[in-house]
Amino acid sequence: MEREWLFSLIPLTIGALFLCFGVYGLRRAGALRRDGVTARAWIVRHDARRDDEGATFHYPVAAWTTPDGRACEYASRFGRGSVGSRARVGSSVLVRYDPEDPRRFAIQGWDTPAVDRLFTVLGALLTSGTLTALLVRLLTP
């Protein structure tokens, strides 16, 4: 085997990064589901951010008060190209947050684990496929 195996490090690295990102997100969502506290919140604004290609993504900012009286106001970690009726400014939403660190929260109906699942599946496929190809190449004469 010559240096061609070095090219397989590219999909292996991408797959490992996708897998780590996806597993982190799924673990975070599981921890919120298991240990999080539900609160009524209101969408107070949207943080609009442009990507490199000029597309604008809207990140709803939810505000709520914890049972101990702390005021919380944080932007969602997921942005979308358009704002649906559920996340308009002034809308009442349910959030699930970590009572020890309210910055870790999810807006129910907006923050779905689908993106984390997609990254986990793609990462697993890229990683296992690349490792399989490398092993076959190493073990065959």
Can you tell me about this structure?
- Helices cover 38% and strands 30% of the residues.
- The longest helix is centred in the N-terminal third of the chain and has 27 residues, at 9-35.
- Strand 4 (92-98) and strand 5 form a beta hairpin.
- By secondary structure, it is an alpha+beta fold.
Describe the structure concisely for a colleague.
This protein has helices at 9-35, 114-139, and strands at 37-50, 56-65, 71-75, 92-98, 101-107. With 141 residues, the protein is of the alpha+beta class. The protein is elongated and about 70 Å long.
Please give the number of β-strands.
5
Topology pattern, helix = H, strand = E: HEEEEEH
Radius of gyration, Cα only, in angstroms?
20 Å
Uncertain residue ranges: none
Work out the strand percent: 25-35%
On the 0-100 scale, what is the average pLDDT? 88
Shape: elongated
Q: Mind describing the biggest β-sheet?
A: 5 strands, antiparallel
The neighbouring-strand order within the major sheet is 3-2-1-4-5
Oligomer classification: single chain
Q: What is the count of DSSP helices, taking H or I runs of 4+ residues? A: 2
Distance between the termini: 9 Å
Q: Structural class, from helix and strand content?
A: alpha+beta
